[in-house]
Design brief:
Blueprint (H helix, E strand, L loop, with lengths): L3 E5 L7 H9 L4 E4 L8 E5 L2 E5 L12 E4 L4 E2 L1 H13 L9 E4 L3 E2 L2 H12 L14 H9 L12 H21 L7 H15 L3 E2 L1 H10 L4 E4 L25 H4 L10 E7 L2 E3 L12 H9 L12 E3 L1 E2 H11 L3 E5 L9 E10 L2 E3 L6 H6 L1 E8 L16 H14 L3 E5 L7 E3 L7
Parallel strand pairs: 1-10, 1-11, 2-5, 2-10, 5-7, 6-8, 7-9, 11-15, 14-16, 15-19
Antiparallel strand pairs: 3-4, 12-13, 16-17, 16-18, 19-20
Helix pairs in contact: 2-6, 3-4, 5-6
Bound molecules: inosinic acid (IMP).
Length: 431
């Protein structure tokens, strides 16, 4: 028996929602450990679609405990909205099935405003293509040791003090950006307005997780975004502000690395990215449009059109190594159905030399040219396949080639958004 960490092995949007839902049925506890409501996980259960951003995917399954760990940045107003919306879909959410770490940092309206100001100021060159949810500014305050944390709402006597400390940083920054200063009372009212709703969910989550682990519970750590958006290992500065790395599952939930037994990298059969930043295999032709349309490549959170391109084995091989992926769940293979030719990036050319990894330098990342291997496509459909025997021979060849190039086995293969359309090779919990 193992605890499983799920991470995206590309730039996010690999289809983690479905796989996490599939795994959460086999888990007892589901933990989010980084990011915030910038994530977009779509779950389709019995034909009903649930869109989650901040809540762990376990909330839609009765009898599971979901935990928002200390590594997550929590927007309390977004929390109220999402809980209310999911409840309207008939799902029960209460402190019985959901807890939030007392030491989770909060996203406030001033963070979201700052995120938007930076994104909209083209002249300043600060545009990253963020989700404008305030994620970056909130993590900056956390690392800067001036964040308001969930537990602070439980102590109104000291809250004002904390807010003043925060504003001692933000008001000069706002003045510099030509924005009006914020009065401490405004922030106080903002957070106390939602305190009664959110505080019942607060818990000492590291202790709760330790108890669960010692009682033999299976824990599923649900990563958001992808390793190529990791603040260290991603395409910096076009990254998110958290660590999307599997190791963060330990730090972001308050457990030791020994609690993480199996790392499952969710991997799309082609590549997509939203926002700015390098994307060596990006396609600007009709094949790119085909992938975007067939794959419904629009962001769950922002509705933005995703950039699309061929599978980049160099990048996924790199994430397999940097984050320690034991096996992958390959998703959206059916999107490639019907293509005459399928290309896979197997290396890069940089300044006339062939290289087998993506260098960290921003200049080099913008310059690398993909080297492709070409495979024959398949005409039959893979959509809805539930066993290897249902797959066309060329599709199996493609999957085997991907495994060989990235140096990790396919543990699961997803062939449609329906959770039943999954081929299981190796149950990550039983590894
Ligand atoms: P932020 O996380 O909103 O600060 O955005 C930073 C970068 O991460 C941008 O390129 C976003 O498009 C990207 N990003 C954030 N969340 C997701 C996600 O859930 N899927 C894909 N990309 C994301």
């Amino acid at each position: 028996m193992a605890n499983v960490v799920v991470v995206g092995s590309q730039w996010g949007d690999e289809g983690k929602g479905k796989i996490v839902d599939w795994l959460s049925e086999r888990a007892d506890v589901i933990v989010r450990f980084q990011g915030g409501h910038n994530a977009g996980h779509t779950l389709v259960i019995d034909g009903v679609s649930y869109k989650l951003s901040l809540l762990p995917s376990g909330v839609v399954r009765p009898g599971k405990l979901s935990v928002i760990g200390n590594g997550v940045v929590v927007d309390p107003r977004a929390f109220v909205k999402e809980v209310t919306k999911i409840r309207e879909q008939g799902i029960e959410i209460s402190p019985v099935n959901l807890r939030i770490a007392e030491n989770a940092s909060l996203i406030l309206s001033l963070h979201q405003e700052l995120d938007e100001l930076r994104e909209n100021n083209a002249a300043a060159g600060t545009k990253i293509g963020t989700t404008k949810r305030g994620i970056g500014p909130a993590y900056e305050d956390k690392v800067g040791r001036r964040a308001i944390r969930l537990m602070d709402l439980a102590n109104p006597a000291t809250l004002m003090n904390r807010i003043e400390r925060l504003l001692a940083h933000h008001n000069p920054l706002r003045r510099g950006l030509g924005q009006p200063e914020i009065a401490p009372q405004t922030i106080y009212d903002e957070v106390m307005g939602v305190a009664d709703f959110i505080l019942p969910y607060m818990d000492v989550s590291w202790r709760l997780l330790d108890e669960k682990r010692r009682a033999g519970a299976r824990i599923l750590f649900e990563g958001a975004q992808g390793v190529l958006l990791d603040n260290d290992h991603g395409t910096y500065p076009y990254v998110t502000s958290s660590h999307t790395h599997a190791g963060q599952a330990a730090a972001g939930s308050g457990m030791g690395p020994g609690a993480l037994n199996y790392v499952l990298g969710i991997t799309k059969a082609y590549t997509t990215r939203v926002g700015e930043g390098p994307f060596p295999t990006e396609l600007f032709d009709e094949v790119g449009d085909f992938l975007g349309t067939r794959g419904h490549e629009f962001g769950t959170v922002t509705g933005r059109k995703r950039r699309c391109g061929w599978f980049d084995a160099v990048l996924v091989r790199q994430t397999v190594k940097t984050t320690g992926i034991n096996g992958i769940a390959l998703t959206k293979l059916d999107v490639l159905d019907g293509l005459d030719e399928i290309k896979v990036c197997v290396g890069y050319e940089l300044d006339g030399k062939v290289i087998d990894y993506l260098p960290a330098s921003q200049d080099a990342q913008a310059k690398v040219k993909p080297i492709y291997e070409s495979l024959e496509g398949w005409k039959d459909s893979t959509a809805g396949a539930r066993s290897w025997a249902d797959l066309p021979a060329q599709a199996v060849k493609y999957v085997r080639y991907v495994e060989e190039l990235i140096g990790a086995p396919v543990a699961m293969l997803s062939t449609s958004p329906d959770r039943l359309d999954t081929i299981l090779v190796q149950d990550p919990f039983e590894d």
